[in-house]
Every structure is written in structure tokens, then in C-alpha cells.
Design a protein that fits this description.
It is a single chain. The protein has 116 residues and is an all-beta fold. The protein contains no helices and eleven strands. The strands form two sheets. Strands 2, 4, 5, 6, 9, 10 and 11 form a seven-stranded mixed β-sheet that branches.
């Protein structure tokens, strides 16, 4: 299975920005879709954004207009640019990939904390 490794998390003030990276062990161009999920303490894991093999992107309503998902196939890396961060964005962010058979792979997660 494909191995995924998230990085780029940290602690920022409200209104700040972070860019998360997800490095994949195999070519992401062969994946049906790549995406990001997040899980806050005591809450269910929620979907954040997807990017499909044709470049089509989708976002949850809570992050639309603030977050941007992108990919660099040559680097086997998916990014999540997060702008105008809010305290409610605080969570562990997980990278996700869905293969040609629609089976998912998950990274270990990276912590994002937004506070004053």
C-alpha cells in the first residue's frame, strides 16, 4: 500500500497561515484521489478537501475560500494551503489517498493549533 507522511503542522495565531505537505511513497498521479481530513479532540474525523486525478477539487463548507488543496505529481506530494486560520481549525490533519480500487490509505497526521 502507498505510504503517506504529513508535515508542516504547528502553532499559529488566528488569521495566520500554514502549508501542510503530504509526501507519498508512490506516484500520486495513479491515485483516484488525494485528500485531507482532520480530527479535533473529542470529535469525529471530518473531511476537509479532495483533489482528483483530473485536477478537480472539492472543499468542505467550513474551509471553502480559506484552504487550497494542490498537488505536485513530480514530487509525489499533496499540499494544503491554509489561510485565515481560526481556532476551530485546531485538529490533527491527516492525508488520505484512494487507489484505483477505491481502497484508502492514511498518514499518521500532523497537529495544527490555532490560538491566541
Amino acid at each position: 500500500q502507498v505510504q503517506l507522511a504529513e508535515s508542516g503542522g504547528g502553532s499559529v495565531q488566528p488569521g495566520g497561515s500554514l502549508r501542510l505537505s503530504c509526501a507519498a511513497s508512490e506516484g500520486i498521479s495513479s491515485m483516484n484521489a488525494m485528500g485531507w481530513y482532520r480530527q479535533a479532540p473529542g470529535k469525529q474525523r471530518e473531511w476537509v478537501a479532495d483533489i482528483f486525478s483530473d485536477g478537480t477539487t472539492f472543499y468542505s463548507d467550513s474551509v471553502k475560500g480559506r484552504f487550497t488543496i494542490s498537488r505536485d505529481n513530480a514530487k509525489n506530494t499533496v499540499y494544503l494551503q491554509m489561510n485565515n486560520l481560526k481556532p476551530e481549525d485546531t485538529a490533527v490533519y491527516y492525508c488520505n489517498g484512494t487507489d484505483q480500487f477505491l481502497f484508502p490509505s492514511w498518514g499518521r497526521g500532523t497537529q495544527v493549533t490555532v490560538s491566541s
